[in-house]
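Thread: "does anyone have the structure for this chain?"

Original post by V.I.:
We have the sequence but no experimental structure in hand. Need at least a predicted one for the grant figures.
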Amino acid sequence: MSDVKKQIEDTISSGPVVIFMKGSPALPQCGFSATAAEILRRSGAEKMVHVDVLADPAVRQGIKEFTGWPTIPQIFIGGEFVGGSDILRELYEKGEIEGMVKAAVGAA
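Reply from O.Q.:
Generated one for you, tokens below.
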């Protein structure tokens, strides 16, 4: 297993809510990352683990290969890949994200 893949797997398992994004939840570097972080916050993910993909090009490419998903941000809840900003927004509008976050945070 590559070091980057192991690093990604370790990160995903390090918290109930993990976001690979551009920047940080406090200082996002793109609108999609800002939207995703805000949705997670509103859904109860007070302490999400985040990875700034701009700081590490190997992780930026590696996460895309890991999930087969071409865009950033990428969100994991309870160790499961949820998707990107658009999917997160759809799930939020349907009222589904909050339950997923609560279940993952409660299980952690």
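V.I.: this helps a lot. The beta strands are 17-21, 49-52, 74-77, 80-83.
O.Q.: and The longest strand covers residues 17-21.
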